[in-house]
Amino acid sequence: MPETLFKIDLTKPMHAQEVPGHNRWHPEIPAVVNVKPGDSFRIECKDWTDGQIKNDDDPSDIRDVELSVVHVLSGPIRVEGAEPGDILVVDLLDIGALRGDEWGFTGIFDRENGGGFLTDHFPDAAKACWDLQGIYTSTRHIPGVKFAGITHPGLIGCAPSAELLATWNKREKALVDKGGPPWKPPIPALAELPNPKNAVLGTLAASEFDRVAAEAARTVPPREHGGNCDIKNLSKGSRIYFPVYVDGANLSMGDIHFSQGDGEISFCGAIEMSGYIDLHVDLIKGGVEKYGMVNPIFKPGPVEPQYSEYLIFEGISVDEHTGEQYYLDAHVAYRRACLNAIEYLKKFGYTGEQAYLLLSCAPVEGRVSGIVDIPNACCTLALPTGIFDKSILPT
Amino acid sequence: MPETLFKIDLTKPMHAQEVPGHNRWHPEIPAVVNVKPGDSFRIECKDWTDGQIKNDDDPSDIRDVELSVVHVLSGPIRVEGAEPGDILVVDLLDIGALRGDEWGFTGIFDRENGGGFLTDHFPDAAKACWDLQGIYTSTRHIPGVKFAGITHPGLIGCAPSAELLATWNKREKALVDKGGPPWKPPIPALAELPNPKNAVLGTLAASEFDRVAAEAARTVPPREHGGNCDIKNLSKGSRIYFPVYVDGANLSMGDIHFSQGDGEISFCGAIEMSGYIDLHVDLIKGGVEKYGMVNPIFKPGPVEPQYSEYLIFEGISVDEHTGEQYYLDAHVAYRRACLNAIEYLKKFGYTGEQAYLLLSCAPVEGRVSGIVDIPNACCTLALPTGIFDKSILPT
Amino acid sequence: MPETLFKIDLTKPMHAQEVPGHNRWHPEIPAVVNVKPGDSFRIECKDWTDGQIKNDDDPSDIRDVELSVVHVLSGPIRVEGAEPGDILVVDLLDIGALRGDEWGFTGIFDRENGGGFLTDHFPDAAKACWDLQGIYTSTRHIPGVKFAGITHPGLIGCAPSAELLATWNKREKALVDKGGPPWKPPIPALAELPNPKNAVLGTLAASEFDRVAAEAARTVPPREHGGNCDIKNLSKGSRIYFPVYVDGANLSMGDIHFSQGDGEISFCGAIEMSGYIDLHVDLIKGGVEKYGMVNPIFKPGPVEPQYSEYLIFEGISVDEHTGEQYYLDAHVAYRRACLNAIEYLKKFGYTGEQAYLLLSCAPVEGRVSGIVDIPNACCTLALPTGIFDKSILPT
Amino acid sequence: MPETLFKIDLTKPMHAQEVPGHNRWHPEIPAVVNVKPGDSFRIECKDWTDGQIKNDDDPSDIRDVELSVVHVLSGPIRVEGAEPGDILVVDLLDIGALRGDEWGFTGIFDRENGGGFLTDHFPDAAKACWDLQGIYTSTRHIPGVKFAGITHPGLIGCAPSAELLATWNKREKALVDKGGPPWKPPIPALAELPNPKNAVLGTLAASEFDRVAAEAARTVPPREHGGNCDIKNLSKGSRIYFPVYVDGANLSMGDIHFSQGDGEISFCGAIEMSGYIDLHVDLIKGGVEKYGMVNPIFKPGPVEPQYSEYLIFEGISVDEHTGEQYYLDAHVAYRRACLNAIEYLKKFGYTGEQAYLLLSCAPVEGRVSGIVDIPNACCTLALPTGIFDKSILPT
């Protein structure tokens, strides 16, 4: 086992750890771990909420979660010799649970607390707590399902440069100022702009704290550096190619998911957990220009769970409430595919909330199947039938 | 081999076939084939353009294609006993090329003739012609790639009821009247509304032709009945569950693709071909209500080509020209993922057009990876590395 | 579709075809097809018995089959420039049924007519006739099973040199003279030595017929050149590397199987059919020495049917009748694994004969799992559960 | 993480553990762990040699290993309510390395110390030591290869009844008395009969020790109860159905392999390691008769490493030294397939010993491809090309 370079005490919040991590993106947050290209090492992570959720049957903790705290990240990790324009090559050698904390949770965020993809249909907070049983998981809150995890860090990436950070802040503020698309529900919000409340900035000097906290980007969206991509296939054995923006790269990570469906639709939709990640790092000097890289690229690992039978639901970009036709809108089309799958699962005895939670965290595939056939986008949701303990095929 | 119930003479346009098919959707287009539940049979299909494209090196036929002709469909097929509210169960037993016509084409539509997903980046018509070599294909127009087909009908579905047709026409007209989203380029059009020009309506009585042609929906978009879904995984061995809207179901199909990538991004993006489809049909009486079905559902077949190594490109919903931030826009995010992959492939010697054509027709996977992390959607494009005759991994 | 270079008239036996094939191996059988490296072409094949078996419910044709006739092969194919020591690279581009002959048969050979792997347990002839339904097959003789084919030539290889032929004849005669291992049942025979009866030698001059027929090797066993390997994974899309022994290579093939289990245990155990094979050929000059090749090597194709759930049966090298312990004997161990699977399937309502036929032709995997743990070999038989229309898991 | 019910101190031999395991099979070895149906728990295991092999470059420890010590097993585990005739259902929830002991070894046993499958070709001891890097492994002793593990217990099974033990002892002694097949080399031995030397019998009362040690079966071969099956696919997530022979079942296990090829051909051929196994147990009362069970049956797990490209080597049952023809001998045929693969790999710069070690421990598939085509068995060895860092295809 590689040496653990970032340790977590699960009884303490991130800011009170012996070496604290961070929950904002900023180039000036100091590295707390130093490694060399070629090194392998272990990083421990708290769950994304910093331990706000309990393993019980009451979803009020989901409803009341303090979102200014998220996502708590482990790092930054300085890689010797890394310079802007390099590619940082990260191998995810292994990912697993911390001893004594082998459980996870999936939540539907309350409409009053951020909501999610289907918040108009499921406005109330709900929660499923999952037992992690080796490679498998099951939950008392959704009977009759069991599946193997495809564990991954929901969030991983290098620190932005000052310029890149400024770009993020500018464009996100412009969106808030301008407003979203016509179909946008009032919830979720358009964006989370910098917010000093509950900011954790690692070992940053106190003298710099207020300035940096006011500038630092929230961790919610995926951006050019990767970040909170929530890509379910970024699992054990993956090799990721990250653009480097600052000297030392300053890689951070967190938000470990035991499993997730494409889209992570309920927002807190993965099986969220604390855990460890074993990594190996290397550099491709000058790789960003050599390969015309904008966003990270990755090669998934060889041990993803295999299913040979799927039931696939189609969705098109027509609003389910108004019947309004949207133009090649893959967001609406995927929402319709999800709703179609939920309606179907209700015929097999699941509540809508159970189905919504399940599509969020089980290894469903969400595809952009057709994106050119005006005016409808066609998205599909593929549900592996093997996760159920009985047949869910039509008969 | 099952009996061929719909035959094609490749030397004649669809309207001049001995038994003509159709290129519009309308409940009154008469069935031309009759089958019973439990039957297996073969249907032959022309390519979607009705033979307008030639196997040569000149893309002017793509530029000048007459789009009022598309898509030419084989059918309708009446299934005895099928009634509105039933599910029509269709097994795609086999799909293949017609003897003597074993080739296909992929095109980039000209900005002046409809455009495609990336028309702002690739405004000019281009074409690749593919040799079909058993399960494999390759093309003189994109050297160094070869892959196995995942052959499927781009378009298949049952005839709409009069009510459903009226709904389609109303909502699509409303979209044209209202206009599209802010990022919409002037090309492609918002929608294709009913257009009598070049309408082919099978054996419909002449007395009804003008009325029906004025009402009948174009075949371009996927809709509730399925239709032009362009789902690459709807391949050999798939079982599809279709909602039935009219007595006899009136199933039609066409637009066979030897292979396609998720999204079919260049619009004429699959490897388009003529061919045959062997089908088996059955009914689930009253299945639509029993299973809460809105759109078709399907179970993919067991013989899709397998790849174990992918290179995956991420994209986020930020406009590539203006840097504008869009709100959870999976369309923009997938466009960025595609552009990132194209930029990467250009580093390996492909032109942008070659890369665009390749991502359209090779078996790439397009995923809605994260759709809740405000304000960015994250889409991914997974490129199987095994289709190239040399390594395309970063080094 | 490539040009058909070897055609079959299904109404005539092989010796009466316009251009006859052959049913023995000998370097002097003249090539009847000429191709160049880089060529693609189609070869048609009769079923291995030359049409002796009928699509009915009476297994007497299996019992009475004339085995001196087998295997009827299509070829030889001369490849220009091929010389001894070269590698002939053969791509199996496609394999399929002949129009109007879309069925196959699986037989248990009678103890009096050659027997098979489990002849002591199932001494009587039996037959299952399979309907080929596109990629799938099912049979009225074994209800409740349906699966996708993994179609392949049971037999393919280049003509031996005179020296290689002499080696074969010598060592096989020595075996007959010496006798087999202690566990050998009286049936099947030890080997089939050259037998002029019913020999078909293509276009060989009459003056040479008797001499060559007396020397020519039977086609039954796999040998250094490949030949009757009955490898189920040598399916569509495979690339095979064959050693060349004579000028022109003289490639022949036949014994097409729609599907087969590892081992082809009932001897006539595949789903035997007539059909066509589309091939592409090329040469690696001097490849045999360059790669130290003894037997053929191949790369399987990408479209094998996928299953994600198997039930696996173990077997060890202890005789099922006497309890005698054999020494690391994988033959006995695989027999026990097969018998264990048959016994299990009988608990689900199948007769022993049905189970034996099914394990012969369904895509079961037979593995040499442990071959060093004295004195027991451990072989396993993996049965894909998805071929059954109900669950066969223990409960 | 489930509770650890059997702990290992890596600094002590098995007999000196606080609760010792055992290295022989006998119904009277007392259970040391008690569980109930439905329980999940962790068992720790030493490597099969009880720590005799060192992580260095000197194979003399392989040459000098004391084989009377093997295999050291953890257990027996008593399952409440289990009775003879029941099926014990064992889920392998997870398998992994022990902290601080993340390495493994593969050895070629010396001809003077037991030998292996190819001992006539590779008579001298050799060793490769593997670094375990999360899901991957690589070794300084075989450059250019890296692969994901398919970790499994080489040995797991329930205690035999007195009657079953007597059967084993009787038939194995009869083999030794009678002698092996004609092709048998003088090494390895025919069988390992009961041997009190170095017997470890758990907590058995001293008064019974000598008698039991004289009766207890060696752990080397797989037998009816499973035992040392060395089945590489019995990995994470597998569900195994074991026959129960004694009250409480008395399940034991050990010989953990990080990875192994089918056959484990060099005898010490897996990547041998210490480790832990997380299990879940349940019972099917009376299941042995209900399902006609003789040997264990299992359902493999869903996370086996996936490869899409293999190079497959054929072998036939002709002796490589003498050219003698054997009768449908899958042992000889698989040996030839292995030798063909080794010869091939030598052309890419590996020594024969390196290739032999690699085929022993990498995830190669060994198939009984044809077992009825008299007189030759055809076995195949499928080598995943993705484990090499360069192409090994012929060109």
Q: What do these coordinates show?
A:
Four copies of one chain form a homotetramer. The first copy, chain A, has 395 residues and is an alpha+beta fold. The first copy, chain A, folds into two domains: 4-299, Acetamidase/Formamidase-like domains (Jelly Rolls); 310-387, Endonuclease I-creI, CATH 3.10.28. Chain A is 16% helix and 28% strand. Chain A contains six helices and 20 strands. Chain A has helices spanning 60-63, 162-178, 206-215, 287-290, 330-346, 352-361; strands spanning 4-6, 33-35, 40-45, 73-79, 87-96, 103-108, 126-133, 136-139, 147-148, 152-158, 222-223, 226-227, 239-243, 251-257, 267-272, 275-284, 297-299, 310-316, 365-370, 378-384. In chain A, the strands form four sheets. A six-stranded mixed sheet of chain A has the order 1-3-16-5-13-17, with no helix packed on it. In chain A, strand 8 (136-139) and strand 9 (147-148) form a beta hairpin. In chain A, helix 5 (330-346) packs across helix 6. The radius of gyration of chain A is 20 Å and the shape is globular. Chain A starts with a strand and ends in an 11-residue tail after the last strand. At the A-B interface, helix 2, strand 11, strand 17, strand 18 and helix 5 of A face helix 2, strand 11, strand 17, strand 18 and helix 5 of B. Strand 17 (297-299) of chain A pairs antiparallel with strand 18 of chain B, so a sheet runs across the interface. Chains A, B, C, D: Keywords: Hydrolase. Chains A, B, C, D: InterPro entries: FmdA_AmdA (IPR004304), FormamaseFmdA (IPR054833). Chains A, B, C, D: GO terms for molecular function: formamidase activity. Chains A, B, C, D: Its EC number is 3.5.1.49. Chains A, B, C, D: This is Formamidase.
